[in-house]
């Protein structure tokens, strides 16, 4: 079986493993020209799995802390789950998260699956 990388699970060891994988990607980004790390927050609802809001927020905070010193923006991708719809991500970024380099990656395909893209 394959263990998925899950940054929104309550199990601290699995969540931390996902954050560590993001750290590995950021270390690679030090070597190649890039400005953005796109992060899927949680898993799509249709795939099941745990989407724990507080665990996801802790992961985002940690990933943003790893990215900021090297000037990499963290873009949270709109995906079909309650943590990562556009409204939830905007609230997290504007109200809760203290990360000036955080933003949103609008995946039009995912947005289409979630309803009216213009919404």
Features:
globular, alpha/beta, 119 residues, 4 helices, 3 strands, single chain, 3-stranded parallel β-sheet, 42% helix
Detailed description of the structure:
The chain has 119 residues and is of the alpha/beta class. Helices cover 42% and strands 12% of the residues. The radius of gyration is 14 Å and the shape is globular. The N and C termini lie far apart (38 Å). The model has no long low-confidence stretch (mean pLDDT 88).
> What's the Cα radius of gyration?
14 Å
The amount of helix comes to 40-55%
Which ranges are low-confidence, i.e. pLDDT below 50, for 5 or more consecutive residues? none
The structural class is alpha/beta
Largest sheet: 3 strands, parallel
Count of runs of 4 or more consecutive helical residues: 4
Overall 3D form: globular
| Element pattern in H and E | HEHEHEH
Main β-sheet, spatial strand arrangement: 1-2-3
Number of strands: 3
Strand content: 5-15%
| Distance from first to last alpha carbon | 38 Å
Mean pLDDT level: 88
